[in-house]
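Friendly challenge for the regulars: who can give me the structure tokens for this chain first? No prize, just bragging rights.
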Amino acid sequence: LPSLRQGERRHVFDWAINPRPGQRPILSVAGGHDRPGQFHSLDAAVSALTGQGGWIQLAGPGPFFLTGTTLVDCGRVRISPPPDMRAVVVLLPDPESRSTALRLRNTHLELDRVDLALPETGFPGQGRLALFLVDSADFSMADCSITQPHARQGGTVAVSVAGSVDGRGSRILFDRVLSRGRRTTTIEFDSRSVDAVLVNSLLVSDTASPLRVLTPTSSPSQADGRHIQLVSCTLSSQSPLLTFDSGPIDADIPSTTLTLVNTLMAIPAGGERVLLDLGRWPQRTDPVSGESRFQGLEWHQHASIAFGVRRFIGREPGAGLSIDSYAEWQS
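First reply, four minutes later:
Bragging rights claimed.
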């Protein structure tokens, strides 16, 4: 369970505090020959997953190797080492797809005490790379790390989230996660419906926003509403620390709420020194005193601070003036 400080519990979704119980088949990765429930490699265990899901238990620190693949309708899957260990998992490229390491569709993945790394040569090409593409699924990481030492021209996204789950938003939980990488965005929400909680996590990049929100076109099959909670987190980059894209002009923007609690936002010297890049996000035509001046967008902060920030909000030329302080956020 997330380690919360006094007063933080009331800001966090109940589902993040009370995990969903359930029995899953155990798949042990311990080398040797494959036997029922035991596999010689992580790839073999992943290939054996069914709609019942599974708990893949890594017998030792590794390294274990996971070749890019797609998991569809595999239920709830957990990957973890023994309780007193950590494990290294190296993500390898799929020869047929070099843009994603692991695709999840209607497959809910939990990673516990796993350090994710890439091969020394990286993934081929210079296009955009998504390490985890989470489509219509839940995703959680606890006491994990992600390292991307390679600067790709198209950039890297550690976790990209799309779609929704059974009429509700995808549930994303980062608890004690270290994410560091060159030109790497830790998490990208390309969905109209998502509930995300990041707790006690450090997101560091050089020239990419650690967190990015995109706005796909509306769909009658999806519920709208995005809620992102950063609790006791630290974000650092020379680029804007948060990037919110409202989508095409005149697009229907879903409600979007960002909550910062005991969080540090830091920009080193020489960076753009912008906390939030709103691009062309439209302002409200009927502003109300004391409320956000931007359509469908709410910002709440509690005991959070920023270092190295000169502009609270940056905007595209022609979209309106930049905003220097939190006080100007409200109408």
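The two ends are 38 Å apart (CA to CA). Residues 42-47 form the longest helix (6 residues). Your move, everyone else.
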